[in-house]
Amino acid sequence: MTVYKSDQIAALDAVPAIVPKANERHGRLRLHYWSFATAAGAGPAVNDTVVIARLPQGARILGGRIANEAMSSGASTAQVSIGLAGDAARYLEASSVDAAGGLSFADTVARNFGDELAADTDLVATALGEAWAASKKIDGYILYAVD
What we know:
By secondary structure, the protein is mostly beta strands. The protein has a single domain, classed as Sandwich (Jelly Rolls). Helices cover 5% and strands 44% of the residues. It has one helix spanning 7-13, and strands spanning 28-37, 49-55, 60-68, 79-84, 87-96, 101-105, 121-128, 137-146. The strands form 2 sheets. The chain has a 4-stranded antiparallel β-sheet with strand order 1-8-3-6, with no helix packed on it. A 4-stranded antiparallel β-sheet has the order 2-7-4-5, with no helix packed on it. The longest helix is centred in the first third of the chain and has 7 residues, at 7-13. The chain is elongated. The mean pLDDT is 94.
C-alpha cells in the first residue's frame, strides 16, 4: 500500500523541515459577516457592484455563503456573482437570486477554494441579469485563515 502526503506534510517531513505558512497550519480562522439592503427606490442596476468585505493580505479563502430575499424586480432573472475587482466571478459565477434562498461560494477548486490573497483585497458582489428589487436584503459571510 502506498502512502501519499499532502504538500504541507511533505514539507514538514523534509530534511530540513519546511514549516508551512500559518494560513495552512495552525492559522486563525476568521469570519467576515456582511449585510446589504437595497434602497427603497431601487436596487443596484445590472453590473453594479457592492463591496461586501475587506480581506487582509495573506488570507486563505475557505468558502462562504450568502442568504437572500427574492431579489427579482420582475424584468428578467436577478443574479449575483462574487469575486474581486477585475475578477467579479472568481468565487461564484452568475447565479440566480431571483427567489429567496442561499448559495455557497469559493467552495470548489474551480471556484478558487484555498486562494491566498497577495494584498488587502475587497470582496464584491455584482448584480447581474436585472436590477435587484427595492428594499431587499442579501447577507453572507466568508471564512478565511490568517496567521
